[in-house]
Every structure is written in C-alpha cells, then in structure tokens.
Amino acid sequence: MKILQVIPHYFPSTHFGGTPVSCHHLSQNLVKLGSEVDVLTTDVFNGKERYRSKSQPETYANYQIFRFRNLSNTLAYKNRFVIPIPSLRFLFGQLKTYNVIQLHEYRNLLNVLVCLFKPITRATYVLYPLGTFPNYNTQICFKKIFDVLFAKIINSAIDIYIVVSNVERESLIASGVPKDKIVTIYYGIDVVEAKFEKKKLLLYPYVLYLGRIDKRKGVDLLIKAYFKSAIFKDSIHLVVVGNDSNFLGKCKALVGKYNLSKFVHFREPITGTKKATLYRDARLVAYVTENEAYGLVPMEAAFCGTASIVADTAGVAEVLGKYDIGKSVKYGDIERLARLLKKMAVRENKVPKEKVRKLFEKYNWGVMSRRFIEVYQNA
C-alpha cells in the first residue's frame, strides 16, 4: 500500500504544535508494517525564514518528504495560512501513484489543492482533523470565509474521517458529518522507555504546564488557580514550557499582578530526555484546556511516571479515566482547580509502573498504526 500524508507544516519546524510529531510516528510505523509512505508539506519554518530542502524529495527516517514553496512565509507562520505553490509534475504525476491520501488538520489550502485533484487519482481520501474541524478559538471570521469557499471541496473528497476521541467524534457529528464515515482511533504514544537526564533540571518542587501558550490552553486560568491555591507559600513553583501564540504577554502580566515572579517560570520548548525529565520530576502536570480533541501532554506525563489534572471534556480524559490516573476538572472552574492544586501538589503524584505498562501495550504507535491500516483497507 502506498500512502501520502498531507500536512501544512512539518519538521524541522514544530512551532505549530504536535501534528508533525504524530504524523512522523504514524508514517514511520506504517513503513515498518510494510507500506510505502511519503509526506507532502510546505516550506514554512519560522517567522523569519523558510526551510530550504537539500533535496527534493528529502529522505527522513524511513520515508520521503516533498515540499511545496509557500507564496508568503509570513502568512504561513503568523496567520497559519499556507498558500502552496504547486509542482505540476507532482500533482499530475506523483499524486496518481497513491492508494491512500491522508490529510492532517482541516482548514488549509494544501488540502484544497490535493482534494481538487481527486478525480484523477484512484486513492481513498482520509481526513485526520486533530481537533481543527470545529470553528472555535481564534480567526473565527477567517474560518467562516474558508468554509464558505472551500469546505465543500474538501468534504466531498473525503471517504473517511479518523478522529482521536469520542469527544471529537461528537463534534464532527454535530457539524453534519455522517456517523458511518467516522472512525475513532486514539492518539498513539511514542515513548517506549522514557530516557531521563541523570540529574534534576530544576531543584525546587513544581507543577508543570507544557504546551502552546494561547487562550484556548487556559494558561492564564492556571496562573489564577495557582495564586488562589497559595501553594507558592510552600515553595511549590509553577513552570510553563511552550511556544508563545500571542498570549505570553497577558500571562506575564498576571504573574506581575499577583507578585509571583519568583515562583512562576516561563521556558522555551524542550524535547528528548530533558522533556521526559521535566515530566518525571514534576509534582503534578496541569493541562486544563478548552475544546481539546485529545491532549497528548497528560499521556506523555503518565508514561514518564507523573499524573495530571486535565479538562473533563478532553479526549485524553477518556483514556486516563479508565486507568484512574490523575483528576479532571471543568475548563474555567478556577475554584476547583485551585483546590486540586492545593490538595495534590503537596506530594508526588506518581503513576504505578504496572499502569504505565498497560497504557503502552494498548496505545503505542505500533498498535495504533495497525488500526489505521485496517481502516484504509476497509475504506
């Protein structure tokens, strides 16, 4: 089976969140299962520069990457609006060689372009929206205009929708997607054996938030709950790690307002063993976000041995609830979040190794990738 993964932004840039990571692990494991996989993306890298490919296609891990140049790197980065300049050779030649074309995320012109070419392909088209299907959070007007112009083009091409939780499934049904075209496959996890730094990275006890710093992620509400909990009086710090999505200024202003600058720390994103070590050494991970189709951070934290407080509507709460890991709270309920922080952060909230083992056996990317193969074949 030959599969094309279509994603608007990709490695080495991870400024847009975790979708390149999930695409990579899915692609890598599909190849291990005997499929041939290519990734189609664009050249957006950061706000100032594009990613310049050394070759076309590039070889990455055990698959290939094709990149279309963006008309505007600024629009692609700051407004998340990719305008790909297509390769006609790819669209009229390479595109016809795939059995399955899977679109990652929803509202982008790369998807529109690929969907317009469905009549000349014989591929099954799969949409993997990863929480981007509903119109919420930011750029509401832009999304409405996009839907008027392009939603029919995309949705008429899609044969099957793969969602990461029952929460996301219900949101698609509410948006008019037929039930029989939706399949739920929980997010995979890439941690086989978490490798840690020999020494602690931080010498004080802390609650950890890891993820993008934007309004939907509720970092401002977490800071308010942290202040209300008064755990800083017990020298328990709050560490916020992630990229700024034009919300860091408001969060820092709150920290100043509450005079918490000695206890609340903002750090750039980290990866690998340092990220695993931050998870491991945290007293608790707080990830109470709004409209979260899944939420990978609490699962990563569990694999590194630390429990989380999550939003009760997040898809990951479905999984963690089955294993009685951590607690859940309604998004925006600062009072209850403060009470949970005060109760839980005074101790280490460790996940037993037996639960970690069971989680890995059921939710590793190898297992999840087999489910994708089954869906492709049935579709």
Q: Describe it for me?
A:
- The chain is an alpha/beta fold and 379 residues long.
- Helices cover 38% and strands 18% of the residues.
- It contains 14 helices and 15 strands.
- The strands form two sheets. Strands 1, 2, 3, 4, 5, 6, 7, 8 and 9 form a nine-stranded mixed β-sheet that branches.
- α8 links the parallel β11 and β12.
- The radius of gyration is 21 Å and the shape is globular.
- It starts with a strand and ends with a helix.
- The model has no long low-confidence stretch (mean pLDDT 93).
The radius of gyration over CA amounts to: 21 Å
Number of helices: 14
Please report the total strand number as a whole number. Answer: 15
Order of helices and strands: EHEEEHEHEHEHEHEEHEHEHEHEHEHHH
Could you name the ranges where pLDDT drops below 50 across 5 or more consecutive residues? Answer: none
Give the biggest beta sheet: 9 strands, mixed
Output the structural class.
alpha/beta
Instruction: Give average pLDDT, whole number.
Output: 93
Report strand %.
Answer: 15-25%
Give helix % range: 25-40%
What are its keywords?
alpha/beta, nine-stranded mixed beta sheet, 14 helices
TL;DR of this structure?
The protein is an alpha/beta fold and 379 residues long. It is 38% helix and 18% strand. The strands form two sheets. Strands 1, 2, 3, 4, 5, 6, 7, 8 and 9 form a nine-stranded mixed sheet that branches. Strands 12-11-10-13-14-15 form a six-stranded parallel sheet, with helices on both faces.
